[in-house]
Amino acid sequence: MEEAIRESLLPESSKHEIEPSLIRLMYAGHFLARWGARMWEFSVALYMINSWPDSLLFTAIYGVVESASIAIFGPLIGSLVDRLTYLQVLRVWLLTRSLSFVVAGGSVTALLIYDDLKTTDFQIFMVLIVVTNLFGAVGVLSTLAGTILIEREWVVVMSNGEPPELLTKMNSVIRRIDLSCKLLAPVFTGFIISFISLRASAIIFSVWNIVSVLLEYWLLASVYNGVPSLSESDQRRNARVGGGNIAESSSILEESESSIGDETDDWKIQAMERLSVIPCFDSWIVYLKQEVALPGISLAILYFTVLSFGTLMTATLDWKGIPVYVISIARGVSALVGIGATVLYPVVHSRIFTVRTGLWSIWMQWSCLLVCVASIWVSSNFNSAWILMGGVAVSRLGLWMFDLAVMQLMQDLVPESDRCIVGGVQNSLQSMFDLLTYMMGIIISDPKDFGQLIILSFFLVTTAALMYTFYVYRIRLP
């Protein structure tokens, strides 16, 4: 049934056999892009806590800036990806990301070299902190454009006309690449920090972004030029954009507007007109009208958590005395479990299909996180930290299978004209909940009170699991 729905939503196109070498080129380009992003994601928490020791404040503030940027501008990024040609998106994404991360890495390097600026010249110190926050956020925003382009658009277009198993396989490999980078990049960075210096890691990060950008562009441009279905999709996108704006191009939104077109519903039309001045309001309407909105919201709620090897948990483990290289190895083990999820997902999916795979996986994640809750009552900081890391690592099996299930639901059930828009809003929504995590980190900034954040996170995972369970019950699968 799910395969039939997917086929009805995908556009008709001529059959083109994709050369395996082109798929491998796409994987290679994606690997290079994700490696740099994962290096920054891991190390920025350590840069921030080094700038202001014994407090999660600067770490949380950076998280707020980054998450708020995606929450506010995520729908705009999705609309931009939808309106530009694939090659234009590719150029803007890679150039903006590279320049932004080079500037952010340079400002961090200055903070680490002149580590007494906080007392000798506080104004310069704050300028460098602001530059790091702003350009780091711009780099992450541009990375979002690339994520939407590859994961939400190219993978679906390239698998169109192929057996449904190809989409499942490509999704799994793309996620496996991301998690491999999440495993290896922090280990690489952690060993540099532990055995050379924090300063060296910032310099290497900046150099990486200068060196890798041209190779990434060549790899991904080669994929575009070698896969006819991508250029065909580009032509359809151009024709659609030329015919009107988002609201006009979206069949979902058109149905919404027609349903309130009666004279008795004039107040609804007026309300819509007033709300339409809100930036990206149309994008949110498109998202909320999708059948998969509830699973998307359930996935987004999982981002309101400290139970991951993110900046707040990394900074807390560092405060508890866990060596940086140990944290990086634990993060790598967590990613290794996630890679296992990408291997297991196609097997489970082939037996119980997408919706039930999501249900099984989110409750498995919930069960594993019970260990993290138990770590709060362990008196030894050292033992508590190890139990926490173990619980988080094992829970990644359920988390990443659920992520894959929701992503495939969106790929199967969202029309082509809405894919990029829905992808942008989904990332925006996830960042809103991520933003709330960092706001809680600012409110509860003492690492000794991290247990309160663990309890809140577990409650929200429970909420997400119940919401998805309600979705499954509502569609009443046989």
Automatic annotation (TrEMBL):
Q: How does it sit in the membrane?
A: Multi-pass membrane protein
User: Hey, which family's this protein in?
Assistant: Belongs to the ferroportin (FP) (TC 2.A.100) family. SLC40A subfamily.
The primary site where this protein sits is: membrane
The superkingdom listed in its UniProt entry is Eukaryota
- Which Gene Ontology MF annotations are present? iron ion transmembrane transporter activity
Transmembrane domains' residue ranges: 57-80, 92-113, 125-150, 179-197, 292-312, 324-348, 360-379, 385-406, 450-473
Q: Quote the protein name from its UniProt record.
A: Solute carrier family 40 member
- Report if keyword Magnesium is assigned: no
**Compartment annotation:** Membrane
- A cellular component annotation (GO) from this entry: membrane
Q: Which organism is it from?
A: Carex littledalei
Keywords for this protein = Ion transport, Membrane, Transmembrane, Transmembrane helix, Transport
Q: What does this protein do?
A: May be involved in iron transport and iron homeostasis.
